[in-house]
Amino acid sequence: MSKVLVITTSLRVRSNSDRLTEELIRGAKDAGHDVETISLKGKEIRFCIGCLACQKTLKCVLKDDAVEIAEKVKNADVLVFVTPIYYYEMSGQMKTLLDRLNPLYPSDYKFRKVYMLSVAAEDESSTPEKAVNGLQGWVDCFEKAELAGSLFCGGISDTGEADGKKEEQNEAYWFGKSLA
User: By Cβ atoms counted within 10 A, which residue in 62, 117, 124, 140 is the most buried?
Assistant: First the structure.
């Protein structure tokens, strides 16, 4: 059983990514994982100021919600980032959080497997490529970790539309069940 941390980055109320995340979590729990979820809704996450003090102290000089999130990321075995795709890229709040996880780079982090679930109105297979590449760039900085998989659910845009997307819900469930 792994300790799985799911971070949802959509700020939309009743977001389609959150609906599919529910199925992913159900699958992960059915597979026996201990799952914790963090939503970035309502969180204060300031931009990294690039001071690099965290590389010596392992702590960020900024005091906001990213500090607590970083501690949870550090202690998880498996990470799952969930993002809507905006302009063929991860959400801005996800990128801001990734930047703020810089104190983990020199730390003794536990996570080894990183996954991504992305959702977009566009439905071309190329739609999530830049978001996946962006997350891969972050993972590449953590030599003990790997981007172990991603699931893209396209053609979903209107609020609550994922409620009627049974095939995508099923894919998200099995994606969660397959987390290692």
Answer: 117
pLDDT digit string (tens) for 62-102?
A: 999 999 999 999 999 999 999 999 999 999 999 999 999 99
Give me the CATH code for the 3-177 domain, please. 3.40.50.360
Q: What is the pTM of this model?
A: 0.97
* Domain positions in the chain: 3-177
Longest dimension (CA), the chain: 49
* Chain-centre distance for alpha carbon 146: 14
What tens digit of pLDDT does each residue of 92-134 get? Answer: 999 999 999 999 999 999 999 999 999 999 999 999 999 999 9
Phi-psi region of 179 (alpha: psi -120 to 50; beta: other; left: phi over 0): beta
* pLDDT band (50, 70, 90) for residue 1: confident
Distance CA 172, CA 52 (A): 37
From CA 172, how far away is CA 126, in angstroms rounded? 19
Enumerate residues 6+ apart whose C-beta is below 8 A from 113.
Answer: 2, 77, 78, 79, 145, 146, 148, 179, 180
